[in-house]
Each structure stands twice: as C-alpha cells, then as structure tokens.
Protein: Oxidoreductase
Organism: Mycolicibacter minnesotensis
Amino acid sequence: MRVVVITKHGPPSVLQVQDRPEPPPPAGGQVRIGVRAAGVNFADHLARVGLYPDAPKLPAVVGYEVAGTIEAVGDGVDPARIGERVLAGTRFGGYAEIVNANADDTIALPPSMSFEEGAAIPVNYATAWAALHGYGSLQPGERVLVHAAAGGVGIAAIQLAKAAGAVVHGTASPGKHAQLEALGIDRAIDYRRKDWWKDLPPYDLVLDGLGGTSVWRSFALLRPGGRLAAYGLSSLQQGEKRSLLRAAPQALAMLRGFSLITQMEQSKTVIGLNMLRLWDDRGTLGPWITPLAEALSSGIAAPIVHAAIPFANAPEAHRILAARENVGKVVLVP
C-alpha cells in the first residue's frame, strides 16, 4: 500500500510517498478502513520539524484522522459494519491507503458528507467539543473568544459554540474575516493590529491553540469565573523549517506557569488540553468523538475543506499549514 512518510526532520520536501506492507488483519475490537481521505493537522507539521515530543520515531507515518470505508472487522465487531462509510481517529498511521482503527474510535459518516469532509471531523471537532463542553462547561449566552478562528479547530468551535447559544468572537488575519462572518461569528478580530486586545470585553471562555505568550494575554481577558482552554503550541513554529531561536521565547513564556493563588483570587481556571494524552488514558477517543454524531446528523458540524491534496503532493499540504493560508481543513487523498 502507499503511505506518506516523514523521512527525517526538515522542510515539507522530506515527505515522501512509499510502498509498505498492508497492516495485519484487524485485531479484536478493531476495523480495517480503506482510506479515502486523511486529515492534516498542525501537530503533523510540528512532528515533521521536530517540535512534537509525542510524535513517533522517524521515519514515520503520522496522521490522526481518516475517512473511508470499513473493509474488514476483528472479533467483537458486528460484521454488518463491513462496507460502512466512517470517519475515525487513528493513533498515527493515517497517511496511508489502509489503516486499522479501534471500532470505538469510529462513527458513521452521514450520507450527505464527502470523505474529504469526514476527514476534517475527528481531531478538530473532538478538540473543540472537549474545550467547549467537555471541560469548558459552556453555557448559553456566554461570551467565547476563539484564537486562530479560521483554522480547523477554530471553525469547529464557532459552529459548536453558536449552536450552544454563545456569543463568539475570533481572531484571524483580515483576509479571512468575511468567511468567518459567513459562518456566523459575532466579531472577527484582526490580531495583526497593534494592541488588538485592548478594546475587547471580558470573556467567559477562551480557546487558545497558539500557546507561548498568547496564553497570558488570554488569561488576562477572562472575567471572574472564566475558563482558558489551552490546547496547542502553534506559536512555537513559524515557516517551513524549525527555528529554535524563534521557538525559545514562546516556550519560555509557558514555563513560568500559572499561580494557583492568582487563579483563586481572580476566580479563573486554566485547562490544559492534550487530546492524545486523554486518548491514551481512556484507551479510546469515544468520549469526545461519540457526542459529535448528533452534531453531524443535525448539520451543526459542517466542516470546511480548504484543499484536498493527493498523496504525491503531500509537501504542499504541509506548506499551506505552515504558511497559515488555510480557512478550514487541509486533507490528503490517496
């Protein structure tokens, strides 16, 4: 089978298509998926440049999410699922034509949704749901700030938060504001404007996938009782290659830590969210992917695919993410 391999740390050109043996038959509780599309995440980009400690040892096939058709099932899985169109979380290995996944990490793909759209669901929408509802305890009428609102998690958060009755603001470059407004965002904020945060109201919940110095600003923007859900470190990496000189100031800012005394005095909460760690601890992505079934069937979850790129052009997919060009999800197709 064909796979996309990160051959070594470096620019997008280190991604190569290779032939590898097919995976073994699915074990008990697993399904075999013929992959039609695989989601590309910023974590994959960080793994490629060597800034993602949870990444497998290189050379490696990464990829956390796919959409495709179940081709075989292991013991304990209903054989009637063979032929079912599904989206799935994959514990790496998603950049491949075939992958085995835990049956509990799959949900049916609605008939109206393409495989490319399906591959945009598992990581982004599970992360947004966990930040907003699983741990953020979002209530109707609350005010939410979403950083990087035009990215995959950002768009998922806008849709889920608006459906929950929240007022949603989001940061993005000006060229993406019109698309965010079309999604129903209440206020699009130009983060490139000097002191952009100074005229903002306090927030009940802030979703911060940037990390670095951004988390301190996000914390300051909370009102008493507010929650900060920090789930990413995209500020550590700019451009296509790793630069420790650029990453160091952002990383050091996060090493300072949050004072529990300050949190108590101001009645604010900081939530660290690592979906991979939760996945490993529970043994399944189910607690965060299963609640999405209703959002999918109702049309609340409506992923936007920025680009569907063939395996052979995988470096272009990573280049788009590194350049922050995308509005929505970038996926790979075999």
